[in-house]
Every structure is written in C-alpha cells, then in structure tokens.
Amino acid sequence: MKRYFANTHFKRLMSSVAAMAILELMTGPPGSALDPTAGFTGSFGEASSFFGLFRTQRWVVFLFIAFIMFGLWTSWLTWGAQVKTATTKAMSVPRSVSHKQPVRWGVTLVLLVVALLLPHLITDPFWQAAMVEQIAVYVLLALGLNVVVGFAGLLDLGFVAFYAIGAYTTAWVTGALPTAAPFGIHFNNFYAIPIAIGLAMGAGIILGAPTLRLRGDYLAIVTLGFGEIITIFANNLYGITGGSQGTKTIPHFSLHVGPVKYLWGLTPVPYYYLTIVFVILFLIGFRLLEHSRVGRAWTAIREDEVAAESVGINPLKYKVMAFAIGASTAGFAGVVTASQSNTIFPSSFTLQFSINILVLVIFGGMGSITGVVLGAIVIQTGSMYLLHTPPAGYQPQDLYIYLGALLVVMMIFRPAGLVPSRRRHREIGLAEAGEGHMDEVLTGDTP
Amino acid sequence: MWEGPGFSPALPFLITLSTDRSRGAQLGAFGHYLTGHFATLRLEFWALFVGGLANGVLYGMVAVGYTLVYGVLRLINFAHSEIFMSGGFAGYFVMKAMVGNSVPSGFASVSFIVIGILVGAFVGAFMATLVERVAYRPLRRRHAPALAYLISAIGASYFLYNMAGKEFGRVPISMPQPYINHPIFHIFNAPVQMYYVIILIAGAVMFLTLDRIVAKTKLGRSIRAVAQDAETASLMGVNIDRTIVLTFIVGGALGGAAGFLFGMGTGVSNTMGFVPALKAFTAAVLGGIGNLRGAMIGGFLLGVVESLSVVFVQAAYMDVVAFGILVAVLLFRPTGILGERLGRAA
C-alpha cells in the first residue's frame, strides 16, 4: 500500500487529477450559501459535450484532460530537456542580430506604429474604451509596480492607495470635491499631474521609510493595510471626499496654450493617444533608470543586501526611492483614470485592484520592462475578452479566481515570468542551485 | 464639524481646508471634545473592555498561527486569513445542519459549540496543510527566494476567498445561533453576554493547551528546535518537513476555531478573514513576532485598545486605529512588547 503512494507516477497522476478537479470547480457553475453543494455537484455533474463528439458529463471531460496532462507531463520529464534546447536553438535570434542597434530601433519603431494605428484597426467601441481604461492605464500601473517588485524586490500590496491618492488629488485640484480647491482656483487637470505625483510620492516615503528598515514582508502587510485604510477614509470623510458617493464632476483634460485649444472629450481615441504618450515617457524613463546607478544599486540590494551595504550602498535610501517611484507612477495613473472617467468612487479602490496589478507584473516577468508591458497587455486583453464574450457559466468575479491561481502557478513553474529579465532569471537560477544569497527560506533539505 | 465623535483631529491640514473657523476656536472645541469623551469612557469602560477582550482573544488565536509559521519559516503566511474563513464556513454549515429552527439550550448548546469549534479547527488545519502543500512546498523544493513565497501565498489567499465567494455566495450570512445570547453576569454594571463568555472560555482552554504543547511535548520541542536553528535540528534527527506541516496544522486549527467563534457573532462571508487577519498580524507584531505568549497578549491588548477607541473615533475608524498601532509598533518597537523570542519555551 505504502509503495503505491510513494510511486512517482502515481503521485503525478493524482496531481493531474487534482489540478483538473480544481479547474473544473473554477469553471463550473456557482453555488450559494443556501445551496452550498450546487457549485460542486454542478461542476462535476453538469452535462457537457465531449469535444463536440458526444454528450456526457463534465467530470468525464476533465478526467480525460487529466490523463492527457499526465501523459504530457511524463513525456516532458523524459524528453523535456531535449525539446527545450531544440526550441531555444530554433527560436533564438543570434546575438549578433538582436543586439545590433538598427535592428532594435526597427523593432521599436514597428511596435510604435502598430500602437499608434491600433484605434483605427479596432473600431468596436467596447474595445476602444478598453484599450484606454483597461490596457494603456494598466500598462502604466504595471510599469510602476515593476519598479517596486521587479527592480527593488519589494512586495507592495497597497498599490491602489497611491492610485486613489492620485485620483482624489485630481478631483481636489480641479474643484470636484466638497473641499475647496487649493487657493480657491479650479486648476486644469494637467496641473494635477505634478501635485498628484508629489502627494503620492510623499505618502510612499512616509509609509515606506519606517517600514523598509525592517524585514521585507512587513512592507507587504503594511501596504495591504494602508490600501484598506485609504478606502475607509475615502468612504467616511464626507466633508472632504464626498463619502461613498464619490464625485462625478471631474473635468476632462484640456489644453489651452495660446491659440491651441483642445478638450479631451468622452471618446476614447484622443485619450488613447494621450495615454500612449504618457506610457512612452514612462517607458523611456524606467529604461534609463534600470541601467542607471540607481538601477544597479537596486539589483545589488536585491541580490545580496549585506554585500551591497558593504560597498557603500545605503539600502534604505534606495528601497524608499523605489517605493516612492512606484507610488508616484500609481498616483499619475490615478490622474489619468480620474480625468478620463470623470468619476471616482471609493468602492473602486479595492485590494482586488492591487492584486490585479501584481499579477500583471508577475505574469510578464518581474524586472523585465518588455515582459511587464506584454504581461499587462495579454492579461488585460484576456480579462476584457472574458467580460465581452463570457463563456457559459462565467461570472465577472470569477476572473479573480483565475488571477489568484495564476500567481501560485507562476511562482511554482515560472517564477521569472513570461519574458524573464535576464538578470532576474540568473538570480533565481543561482538561488535554486544554492549559490545565490537572495533571502533564503528554510527548505527542509538535509544538509 | 465637531459635534459627534470623529477622526478629524488627526487631520488638521484638511480641517483648515474644510472649515472657516479660526484655529483658536478649533482648539477650544477640541478640548471640549476630549473632556466629553473621557466622561463617556468612564461610563462605558467595562462594557467596552469585555467586548474588546473577547475580540482580543480571537485576534490572539489567529495571531498564534502567524507567529508559529513565522517562527519556523521566517515568513508571513498571507493565506492565514483564508484558513480563518474556512473555519467560519465549516462552522456555519455544521450549525445550519444541527441547530434547526429552535435555539437550543443547556447541554445541547454546549455540545453544539464544542462540535463547531472542533470542526472549525479541523477544517482550518486541513486548509493550512493544503496551502503548505500547494503554495509553499514546491517553492521550498526549488530554494525559491522569500519574495516568491509571499507572492504564492497571496495568490493562494486570493484564489481561496474568491473561490469561496463563487461556491458559497458573496454576501455575508448570519450563523444559526446554538445558544441564547443573554447577559450572564455583570462586571461593574456592565453586562457580560453569553457570546463573550464562550469566547473567553474557549480561548483560555486553547491558549493553555497550546502553551503546554509547545513547552512540553515532543512536537513542541521539534517546533522550537527548528525555529532556533533548523540545520542543527535536522542533524539532531528532527524531520523538518514534518515539523513545518505540523506547525501549519497547529496554527491552522487555532485559526479555524477562531473563524467559527468569530462567525458565530458576526456572520460569515468570503471576505470575513481579511480585516481580522490584518489585526491578528498587528497583534503578533505587537507582542513580538515569533513569540507565542506575545501573540496572545498582543491580541488582548489590541482588542481592548481598539474597543476603547470607539469612544473617541467613529466605529468606522476602528480599523484605522489598529493599523495606526501596527505602524507605531513597527516605528518605535519593531520587536514588540515581549520581544522576538524565536523558539524559546514560551
């Protein structure tokens, strides 16, 4: 009996079946507190089509997939290494080509042209709105969180707080809150940008400076709490924030320089171009930052804090800097969203939001700017697709189940993300070989 | 602006923006505000104290889970809030099946509560094992950096509470009551409800048991050994993998039982774990993380302080008070009241 459970093939088969059972529950019908078994029985027992061949029940389909998964998994363990080397050989562009400046500029230019033409290729109003509100803004947010999580290796779970600060600052500066605007002047939204960045950065420093002196995971829980606190304040300070009703009177961006007059209205396309400009500015900024003295300091701290400190890097300073830069990016994104949608509600600043951004960074690849942008685009497009054309039995809240599962799966199988940053990949590889000095956790191996 | 209790005193900057009163008048109003509220505090002290203590016991029970896992792995178990939630739901379904329409009393009442606690503890322990198996063990096998554990635990937590929302609905539901919640006795004219008595008794029993387990048994010794020095412990024949799982089980059992007790009073929902877990973590840090007795004392203290703060601020800001305490502790005494004492016989 014991030999049965210890058998690696048996374990693998059971893991496949368990994974498929979980997937079955995730995609199955919902239950309720009054009928708690409905979700479970429905997930397994509901009638389903066996790949269009014949009618059967869901569990048959999933069991079949579990067996296929078991087969693939076993063959991957047997031939995986060969397949991997063969594919990397076939897919990889020779370094002599990929590192040539003209090639890199050409690729960048093509991507830029595609990004600029996109609103003319996709004319469906749903997708045009989604491109601004759900994709471009989220790319911006993911880039900001990437500085914290990817570059500095800190976990920030209250990213939404800084986003909220940005949004409320916009409302305050433009005179949309019950509180009087600064100096009694209703500023243009563009003036909200530096103020929001400053306030979010200030909040980041106030929160980060005491916390970052301590262990890294304290930051995670403090930011988690801070995200919640900001919502409580926004909900309850009626006289200042407008309470749970929020505000609906934030003006759009408008430009009024000499003879040039332009008002960004309700249509998404002008906003798309505005946001793209912002995204590109941030992309350039972060790319420069990554390879600057500061970026190298972050890498050093991430890899070995003691060693970094001994060569004269002040870890606290650089960590607070990363945290503040991430916070100010979120604040900036808050300005963009608030101006674009004209409305803010406290109920939209939830933990869900912070985790959603974290998923974009983790999925794309911590520390890899290309990866993070790609991850944000892929995940946000996917979730928008699910919202637009939901498969049978899909509820909008189910998305969060998938995102949570994705975080665990990524951490288990591909911690460096979809497009790994070369540096990060190497670090994780070294740590796994037991050579790196990234914060070690008890492994349970016999020494 | 200054009529009822409000949090505004902490935000003088925003106040000057939102009122046109002069600064002197504000300070006068503030003085009046304080004296008025100290009078209320004197009147309500014992009622608030008992309620706060009961809450504090629950925080302590959850905090123990954080502290134990932290002691062994040096990590915050972010999925602990969902272990708490699973205990709450398990208790809810058991109560729903057993209690029926009439509220039981006497022996039936006691046995239902004991069964509820045991089921909550069992399911909590089971979920904790599951979380360890799925979100922690594969990473330990691969020597992943600490950040990876935090992210995978967050993912597990997020997955679990949204999954619970899908299966059991996303609205809070109240639990069928296995007892009549009338005042049992009075302390200085403050009534002490049945619910509080149940929590205090259950908490006392569990804390004492846990304290003895960790101090006296072989399991407790192995947990302490791993917390002190994992490498040496494993050379001395302690099975580290097994110890880690058992640590999760002990913490999860207490968390699940606390989930049931909490749900009995406040109702259960898929997001019920979030705020109590955050406060329990605060309690663990307050008492000194890694320190078992510290977690309990931190829990009592946090519960009472938070409860008394209701006199001064609106109830909506109670969470803010707890968070303020967390930040203040991290700022001024990051080792907590009793200090970090990883692996000492409590």
Task: Summarize the model shown.
The complex is a heterodimer of chains A (447) and B (346). By secondary structure, chain A is mainly α.
3D architecture notes:
The complex is a heterodimer of chains A (447) and B (346). With 447 residues, chain A is mainly α. Chain A has helices at residues 2-6, 8-27, 38-45, 58-91, 95-98, 101-121, 125-151, 159-173, 189-212, 216-236, 238-241, 268-290, 293-303, 305-310, 315-341, 351-364, 369-388, 398-413, 422-432, and strands spanning 47-50, 54-57, 254-257, 260-263. Chain A has 19 helices and four strands. The longest helix of chain A has 34 residues, at 58-91. Chain A is globular. Chain B is mainly alpha-helical and 346 residues long. Chain B has a single domain, classed as ABC transporter involved in vitamin B12 uptake, BtuC (Orthogonal Bundle). Chain B has helices at 12-18, 23-73, 80-99, 106-141, 146-168, 194-216, 218-228, 230-235, 240-266, 274-287, 292-308, 318-332, and strands spanning 183-187, 190-193. Chain B has a two-stranded antiparallel sheet. In chain B, helix 2 runs antiparallel to helix 9 (240-266) and helix 10 (274-287) packs parallel to helix 12 (318-332). The longest helix of chain B has 51 residues, at 23-73. The radius of gyration of chain B is 22 Å and the shape is globular. The N and C termini of chain B lie far apart (49 Å). At the A-B interface, helix 9, helix 10, helix 16, helix 18 and helix 19 of A face helix 1, helix 4, helix 5, helix 8 and helix 9 of B.
